[in-house]
Structure formats: structure tokens, C-alpha cells
Amino acid sequence: MDDVLSFAVFLLTGVPLIAMLSVLTPLLRLLRIFPRSLSIDEQSLAGKVVIVTGCNTGIGLQTAKLLAHKGAAVVMACRSVEKAAAAAAATSPGAGSFHPIELDLADLKSVTRFVRSFEDQFGASHLHALVCNAGVPAKLGTRTVQGFEMAFGVSFIGHFALVLELLPRLKRCGGRVVTLSSVMHRFAQPGCSANWNHAAFDTYPMHLRVFTSSYSDAKSAMVLLAVALRARGIASSAVNPGAAAVPCVAPIISAEPLEHLYLSPYWVPSRLPVLDLAGPFVGAFPNLSKPEQAGAQGVALDAERLWSWGETVLQASHDREAQSQLGRAS
Tens of pLDDT along 298-307? Predict the structure, then answer.
């Protein structure tokens, strides 16, 4: 029933929205409201170490290419080391270098293993930037290893666990963090009243499920994560890359027609070039920063509430794992 309702909502709201944007976007381009590209300065990143998650394809790979071209040592944190290595081999690193290390954000144990592997290669103090790029589209019924809803578990919880482990290194190096959000954050629960358990375990009541998903809540959480990191002395920005035809939003052919139709909100925009509404929207330009627009104090409180919730959820997950290991040992 929830699948049918989700698809009906898309037909009633998504299709008219896409049609409207198809007409308005060319006009907005002419008015330079949505710039097609941003100028990149030529500052060298030689000697800098940067981690980019989910960068064997798509936006992450393009980010890794640019950073390496400017001289950075780019750690390609990907689920498949083989695919990351193949992508690196097919790309000239310019003055920099690529270093694939396995990281599966759908498994908190993999996050810990990644940090250990990173320390083995780069030491405990070398980390100048972290780009939290990896993510997956919402797909009903899928879970992470620890039981979180997949979109929220990968996009936020996995990244949050990674940030916590790397935070001391980032502080020592004066490092910075970039989190990838989306215009979909506007469809998330209001931060002041958000029940993050709904997002983490896909337990939305019907009145929220109509317009909210774990995906949109994850993108809102990534904005708030940037705000919380700023409060901890870390230079952090959340950015909106815009619609892009990347593999993670490609249609998944399934024996269940309704499952395929459910993915169409993600598939359609990625195939319409007129909808490339790309551009930074938080943190990249101070005068466009969402916290300043929405009221910095309220957003900061929302960010701290999310941070506290995240720590509690991770601790509970670790406790359950420890209890499970004790049970198996006995």
C-alpha cells in the first residue's frame, strides 16, 4: 500500500514539477540564476591528503580527478577496491596520486577497518580534507549490515561514523569537510521536530511518508552535519551538486513493476539535461548560507540534536554487536 501511495504522490506532484522545471530552467540559465560552472582557482594542493567517498564513478570520480590534478593525494574510499583501482588507472592523476582503500558505508565495521588502513598508509595525523560524497537512492526494503534503512544508513550514519573516527586528525591538520546534500532536503522532516529514528529505520507514520523519505532526511542530515562540524571548529560546507546521470540513480530493472516505477522520480531527472540545476547552496558562498537565512541559532540547535542522536545510535549499534559476539562465544 505504501508503494502505491508513493507512486501516486509522484504522479500528482513530481510530474507537474518536472514539467514546470523543464520550461523554467532554460530561462533561469539565461538570467544566470543557475550558473553552468564555477571557476576553479589554481592553488596547488601538493602535499595535501584528501579522502573522497564513493568516487569510482560519477560526481565522486570527477571530484577525485580535479583534486589529484591540483596535486593532492586522493584516497578513493570505495566499496570495490578493484573498481576504484580501474577508475584510477584510466585517469591521469596529474601532479597528484590515487590511493584506493575499501570502505563500505553500509557496514560500520568496514568504517573502522578503513580508518585503520588509512592510518597504516598515511599515519595518524595526515588528513587535510574529507569529501562525504557516497550515497544511494531510496529503495524500499533494503537495509545496511547493522539494520538501518539503506539510503539513510549509507548517506548519513556511515558518514557520521567516519567523521567521528577522523575528527581528531582533521582538527590536528586544520582539515575541512564537504558533505553532499540535495534539493531533496527541502522535503525532509523539520529539523526542530525531526524524529531521526523514522529515517534510520523507515518507520514513518503515514502522514509523514506521503512527502518524506529516508533519502530526503539523509540529505537534510548532511546539511546539519556541516553545521555541527563548524561548531566543533572544522571548516565545513554542504553542497548541492544538482541532477546528474550517475550510476546510483540508474533504473533498476525488476520483476516487480511497482518497484521499478517507484524509482522513476530519481531516474527521470537524471535523464533530462534541462534539469541540471547544479550549484552550491550552503557554505560555498557565505551570503547564500542556509544557516544565516533560516536563523543560525535554530539550525545550530537542530544540528546539535542530530549529533547527539547519531552518537546514541552508533553506541547502541556497537552495544548490540558486542552482545551478539558474547552470545556466540557462550
Answer: 788 899 999 9
